[in-house]
Design goal:
Oligomer: single chain
Strand order of the largest sheet: 3-2-1-4-5
CATH class of one domain: Alpha Beta
Number of helices: 3
Largest sheet: 5 strands, mixed
Distance between the termini: 85 Å
CATH architecture of one domain: 2-Layer Sandwich
């Protein structure tokens, strides 16, 4: 160690010793290189081979349409509005998870659509989608 007793040399050393910083960084780098392969939690498994099966059958949703003249259609078959509830009750009896799509012409009076929706609700249908056109 050298001590300076001379007061005429008052220079301040402005250098930073980076050797300890480099040592710490190298130790961290080695630690990450060693531990990185251990971070993979995947378990490699050879899965058994089986015969291909068909996917579960999707039941198509029933479509109820109301045209501009107020006529009601169930899957493209015209039906009087008074018989809509009975028709849907019969279909709900066969399939309790019946999905229904309702589409109505924009020119049809709201009262006709409201009557159709009331008949759908009374029939026990719990999955109802109201279809609209895209765009503006």
């Amino acid at each position: 160690m050298a001590f300076s007793t001379s007061s005429d040399n008052d220079e301040v050393l402005g250098e930073i010793n980076i050797t300890p910083l480099v040592d710490v960084m190298l130790v961290l780098l080695v630690a990450f290189i060693v531990t990185a392969p251990l971070l993979n939690n995947a378990v490699h498994v050879n899965l058994p081979k089986t015969a291909t099966t068909a996917p579960p059958q999707q039941v198509k949703a029933v479509t109820v349409s109301v045209d501009a003249q107020g006529k009601v259609f169930v899957d493209k078959r015209e039906l009087p509005l008074a018989l809509l509830e009975a028709e849907l009750r019969a279909r709900v009896a066969v399939n309790k998870d019946l999905a229904l799509n309702l589409q109505a012409d924009e020119g049809v009076p709201y009262g006709t659509v409201a009557k159709a929706m009331a008949a759908i609700e009374r029939s026990g249908v719990s999955k109802l989608s109201v279809l609209t056109a895209n765009g503006g």
